[in-house]
């Protein structure tokens, strides 16, 4: 889109509207899509809004920066993985997974160790997105988590990474009679993706 950078006031207004969206993706939240559509010229005002905001508003700004491919904001977003607000942490994990600043894999490996289920889930997806061999170890340990959703996210990401060292742990989990059917399906798909 042409024209000049949006004003901070305009960005803050769109962020306010986006806080009402049930899902924070450009496809499902018009206000977020409009923020992302500002492109390069919207990065600074959205970054300013992120710094000035708290809670859900900050999470929206962080999410927008991730979708805007604001790579220069990556290191700043890495710092938000330890924000006191859970929603901001989750948004930061997703944004960092998209932008992949230096230190991403290590930061996401810490995030997947979180006590919070949502943080674990988004960190597992983000680790798979990195394509990094360093993501394999934290994902393998997430495979042994008690929650089926965590197991499935970790297995999907291991499938994306196509790393053969995941084959045996996935096969072991598949052979375990207590592994539930939805998890089994994802494990089979992951093995297929790995090619073993």
Q: Which tags fit this structure?
A:
single chain; 196 residues; 12 helices; elongated
Structural description of this entry:
The protein is about 65% helix and about 0% strand. α2 (about 30-35) packs across α4 and α3 (about 45-50) runs antiparallel to α4 (about 55-65). With about 200 residues, it is mostly helical. The chain is built from twelve helices and no strands. The radius of gyration is 18 Å and the shape is elongated. The mean pLDDT is about 95.
Structural class category: mainly alpha
Order of helices and strands: HHHHHHHHHHHH
The biggest beta sheet reads:
none
Distance between the termini: 46 Å
Unreliable parts? none
Quaternary structure annotation: single chain
Number of helix segments? 12
Q: Outline, from the CA principal axes?
A: elongated
Cα Rg: 18 Å
- Rounded average pLDDT: 95
Strand content: under 5%
Helix content: 55-70%
Number of strands: 0
């Amino acid at each position: 889109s042409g024209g000049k950078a949006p004003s901070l006031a305009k960005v803050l207004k769109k962020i306010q509207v986006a806080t009402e969206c049930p899902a924070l993706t450009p496809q499902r939240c018009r206000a977020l899509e409009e923020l992302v559509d500002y492109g390069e010229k919207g990065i600074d005002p959205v970054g300013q809004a992120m710094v000035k905001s708290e809670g859900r508003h900050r999470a929206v700004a962080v999410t927008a920066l991730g979708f805007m491919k604001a790579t220069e904001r990556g290191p700043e977003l890495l710092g938000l993985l330890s924000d006191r607000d859970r929603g901001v942490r989750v948004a930061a994990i997703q944004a960092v997974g998209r932008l992949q600043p230096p230190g991403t894999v290590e930061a996401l490996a810490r995030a997947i160790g979180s006590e919070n289920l949502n943080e674990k889930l988004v960190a597992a997806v983000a680790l798979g997105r990195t394509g990094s061999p360093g993501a394999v170890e934290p994902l393998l340990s997430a495979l042994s988590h008690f929650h089926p959703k965590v197991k499935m996210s970790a297995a999907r990401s291991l499938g994306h990474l196509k790393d053969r060292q995941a084959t045996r742990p996935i096969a072991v989990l598949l052979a375990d009679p207590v592994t539930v059917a939805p998890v089994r399906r994802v494990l089979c798909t992951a093995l297929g993706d790995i090619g073993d």
